[in-house]
Design a protein that fits this description.
The chain is α+β, with helices and mostly antiparallel strands and 485 residues long. The protein folds into three domains: 134 residues, Alpha-D-Glucose-1,6-Bisphosphate, Chain A, domain 4 (2-Layer Sandwich), CATH 3.30.530; 115 residues, Glutaredoxin, CATH 3.40.30; 108 residues, YaeB-like fold (2-Layer Sandwich). Helix content is 40%, strand content 24%. It has 13 helices and 19 strands. It has an eight-stranded antiparallel sheet with strand order 2-3-4-5-6-1-7-8, with helices on both faces. Strands 15-16-17-18-14-19 form a six-stranded mixed sheet, with helices on both faces. Strands 9-11-10-12-13 form a five-stranded mixed sheet, with helices on both faces. Helix 1 crosses helix 2 and helix 6 runs parallel beside helix 13. The protein is globular and about 90 Å long. The two termini are 54 Å apart.
């Protein structure tokens, strides 16, 4: 199974009774025609054909835990199944919850939804909206926070600079002329529920915030910016993704919603880092350890008769086989994950091939390309001009362009811009190359000295909003240092 959604959060006190009620309410709303009731006794419940649930609640020497899994087919795609798993554990002081949604496909040609297409499960939305929850030390925000003027900037900085902050902060700035944001903060907070805290800042607040962190790290005039945990006043400004007003307008024109883009970005990070509940794992390990100790006590309490010795040997054999089966299961799971990675790589290659075919059919602005001497890379007139403007960076630009010809380097170190096009490399360089691919050929549209303040606005607009190759005419072949042309 491939996880698509994962979130862990904590509730104060022993909330297992509350969670059992919420789980029953969730299933009742999902299956309105079902007249059964969910019992947490570990028995499989068939809700209707193909739809099955298993719920269990257990006590251990260190606390109590419950599990709930729901497995059902996709309502539109027959070869896909959905698996939702809720786990919760309590030691009396707090209750730890985790929800993971995964898919399983039984045929070829069935793709999982992209991260930005995934929706927050209703059971998670209900739990977070009805009960106060925390992720790490932070309380989950259900409504956005508002900074109306310079007074609230201090509170905003306290949140941003807190060393134990675990959630991103998404700052939404008001448009200077209208006093309203382009993106509805309340809607954005609902979309990012559990993954980020949304803050709307007024124009006056933006000026005060800019004074506190410098303009390159600020957000203003309808922009939206992400501040990752660990942000400081001297943090790299390009490490905090900025979506300018122009970029958001362009995305909306292309029917791309910034709330979906941000949700997909946060979700990918959450799934990659998800480890499950620590308390839940500890309770399960305690339970298994107690079970093993009980078996050994039973073995020692029996008289050492031939029959009991034979029984003990049989128990040892069963335990050894059980361990071997667990190891074999783990190896098989690793093999499944390896094959899923291979399938995912093949899917990317197939998507790239489809894109190349589509791009070839659309065509490229090739008004100055020499058809008799095809090259693997072309530079636009603007890229050549930008190269010539920075002679102290020629050596670095030459090295980047040379490496960009390697398909493996592009796959591993280039990243897609939300509105189209690619930027290379992702990091560890003071230069950036914006390019597109058409039929396996690299078309370099722009060259940027990464940390030049005067170009920060243009760089952020391209990086966060994307670009179109048709806007950059005058492509000519590149076969070596441009300055010598």
């Amino acid at each position: 199974m491939r996880p698509l959604y994962a979130l862990s959060f904590d509730l104060e006190g022993d909330r297992l009774p509350t969670l059992t009620d919420e789980a029953r309410r969730w299933l009742a709303s999902k299956y309105a025609a079902w007249d059964g009731e969910l019992s947490f006794d570990g028995q499989r419940v068939v809700i209707r054909e193909g739809h099955e649930a298993i719920a269990e609640e257990r006590s251990t020497p260190a606390g109590r835990y419950l599990t709930l899994t729901l497995d059902h087919p996709d309502s539109r795609i027959e070869a896909r199944r959905w698996h939702t798993a809720l786990t919760a554990a309590t030691d009396g002081a707090f209750t730890e919850c985790s929800v993971v949604v995964s898919t399983r496909t039984d045929g070829f040609g069935v793709y999982d939804p992209r991260p930005e297409q995934v929706q927050t499960p209703n059971i998670v939305r209900d739990l977070l909206q009805r009960h106060e929850a925390k992720v790490g030390l932070e309380r989950v925000a259900v409504e956005p926070f508002y900074v109306r003027g310079s007074v609230g900037v201090g509170d905003l900085l306290d949140v941003l600079l807190h060393p134990q902050r675990s959630l991103p902060v998404v700052l939404v700035a008001q448009v200077a002329r209208t006093g309203r944001p382009l993106v509805d903060p309340a809607h954005l907070q609902r979309r990012l529920l559990g993954f980020a805290r949304v803050v709307e800042i007024s124009e006056e607040g933006s000026f005060a915030f800019s004074d506190a962190v410098e303009k390159l790290r600020s957000c203003f005039d309808g922009g939206v910016r992400v501040y990752w945990p660990g942000f400081q006043r001297d943090s790299d400004p390009y490490g905090q993704p900025l979506y300018t007003r122009a970029a958001i307008v362009r995305m909306e024109a292309e029917l791309i919603r910034i709330e979906d883009v941000l949700f997909g970005r946060f979700l990918q990070t959450a799934v990659a880092r998800f480890e499950g509940g620590r308390l839940f794992r500890r309770l399960r390990e305690t339970e298994e350890s107690a079970r093993r100790d009980e078996i050994h006590r039973l073995q020692e309490s029996l008289a050492r008769t031939p029959e009991s010795e034979e029984w003990a040997r049989e128990m040892d054999r069963v335990l050894a086989e059980n361990t071997q089966l667990r190891d074999a299961r783990d190896q098989l799971q690793l093999g499944v994950w390896d094959q899923e990675e291979v399938i995912e790589r093949l899917r990317r290659e197939l998507d790239r091939a489809h894109a190349n075919i589509r791009d070839l059919s659309v065509g490229v602005p090739t008004d100055e390309i020499d058809e008799e001497a095809p090259a693997r890379m072309y530079l636009s007139a603007q890229a050549r001009s930008e190269y010539d403007e920075h002679p102290n960076r020629w050596r670095r630009f030459d090295a980047l362009l040379e490496r960009l010809l390697d398909e493996t380097v592009r796959d591993q170190q280039a990243s897609r811009c939300p509105g189209g096009g690619y930027v290379y490399p992702r990091d560890n360089s003071d230069e950036r190359v914006f390019f597109e691919l058409r039929g396996g050929v690299v078309y370099v549209c722009r060259l940027f000295p990464h940390h030049q303040d005067s170009l920060a606005g243009a760089y952020n607009e391209l990086r966060n909003g994307g670009f179109e190759i048709v806007d950059y005419p005058g492509f000519k072949p590149w076969s070596g240092p441009v300055a010598s042309d």
